[in-house]
Amino acid sequence: MENQKSNALPHWGVAYYHYNPIAILNDQEVELNPLGTEGQYIEGGGNPKPYKLYSLSFPLGVGVEFRLTNAFAARIEIINHFTFADYFDDLSGVYADSLQLSATTNGALAVEMASNLADGYPRTGASRGDPNDNDTYMFAGVKLYTLLFLVTMATAAVAEEVTNPVSRAASEKEKANCPAFD
């Protein structure tokens, strides 16, 4: 990157992350996972299991870095994370039976948070999300940073040249007298 003004930077890898879906009710945060809004805590039946709050993702993206000066650079990047989770928003499958959901430990709150509709609770089995399409998340950003290590190394090389020009000349002369350089 010494003589280049910009570089394309591909990004890929593996990430491990934690998430915790919440909703706001009466100006208070409500954690949705413990409520089992899709019937995760209903005994029996074909309801989904509670979802885990940790998972893996595969980040894939691109960035461009611009050298502004010898000491500063800027980077623009966008990275999408493809995940193995489908509950970032607490939506994946279908609406659970409201009577069964209300009988769970957090029943009344679970029913209220599951629908969040002014028209009332949707029919049992109505779609809340697509369980065949996992969630993704994306980062986009602009960074401005300094290249301290490169500046320090360049400064040290210039300082050595200025303070000790004889040692460099002697070193070059020794190389010239060395059989390996003949």
- Number of DSSP-assigned strands: 7
Secondary structure tally, helices: 4
The CA-CA distance between the termini, in Å, is 33 Å
Rg computed from alpha carbons, rounded to a whole number of angstroms: 30 Å
How would a crystallographer describe the biggest sheet?
5 strands, antiparallel
The arrangement of helices and strands along the chain is: EEEEEEHHEHH
Mean pLDDT: 84
Q: What would the principal axes of the Cα set say about the shape?
A: elongated
Strand content: 25-35%
Q: Can you tell me the number of structural domains?
A: 2
The SS-based structural class is alpha+beta
Helix-residue proportion: 10-25%
Spans with pLDDT under 50 lasting ≥5 residues? none
What features would you describe in this structure?
With 182 residues, the protein is an alpha+beta fold. The chain has helices at residues 98-102, 107-115, 148-163, 165-177; strands spanning 6-12, 15-18, 22-25, 28-31, 54-67, 72-83, 136-146. It folds into two domains: 6-146, no CATH class; 148-182, no CATH class. The strands form two sheets. Strands 1, 2, 5, 6 and 7 form a five-stranded antiparallel β-sheet that branches. Strands 3-4 form a two-stranded antiparallel ribbon.
